[in-house]
Amino acid sequence: MKYRVNIDDKTIDLEIFQNGAEISIKLSEKNLLIDIQQLSEFSFSVLIDGRSHFLSLLPMNGEYHIEVDHCTQKAKVLTDLDIVKERLGIGVDDDEHEGEIHVQIPGLVLSVCVAPGDRVEKGTPLFILSSMKMENEIKSPVSGVVKLVHIHEGENLEKGALALTINDE
Q1: CATH architecture assigned to 2-84
Q2: DSSP, residue by residue, 27-51
Q3: Cα–Cα distance between 62 and 8 in angstroms, integer?
Q4: Which positions ≥6 away from 17 have C-beta within 8 Å?
């Protein structure tokens, strides 16, 4: 499985292979043979090239607090699916864009089903988008209150265009 780890301003691409109890990690074109023993849900004893290390991974708000030998770093971990989505411009969940609904396909807005101030539940139709001779009902991925509607009927939208902003409850 491929992962991308962002720690501060450094990005590390790695790939993890497992063969029975043996785990190997390809890290920046360097192969490491690692023996891992799980100690608890989030802590591990790790043997790398004959050296023993204590590792804990604590998930917190979409990131991980990674502690190696009692030294802690915050890291954002992306799976191979997240990496592909990022490469395609679909993007990865990002707090600064929280509540924003972006168009995933280009098309023509046939109708807008909500207005600012409307309360929506997850699955509520937001707008109808015509794309490739098909009408696509775009539904809300979250529950909340519509803050802004950035689109209007008859507008042609490009992939990635900001359509609506919905505030959490």
Answers
A1: 2-Layer Sandwich (3.30)
A2: ETTEEEEEEEEE-SSSEEEEEETTE
A3: 15
A4: 23, 24, 25, 26
Average pLDDT on 95-111 reads: 82
Side by side, the strands of the sheet bearing 134-139 are 134-139, 125-131, 107-112, 156-157
- Hey, what CATH topology would domain 94-167 get? OB fold (Dihydrolipoamide Acetyltransferase, E2P) (2.40.50)
- Sequence ranges of the chain with CATH classification 2.40.50.100: 94-167
* Segment 41-51, tens digit of pLDDT: 888 888 877 88
What the block records as the tokens of 67 is 């502690």
pTM over 0.70: no
Region of residue 116 (phi > 0: left; psi between -120 and 50: alpha; otherwise: beta): beta
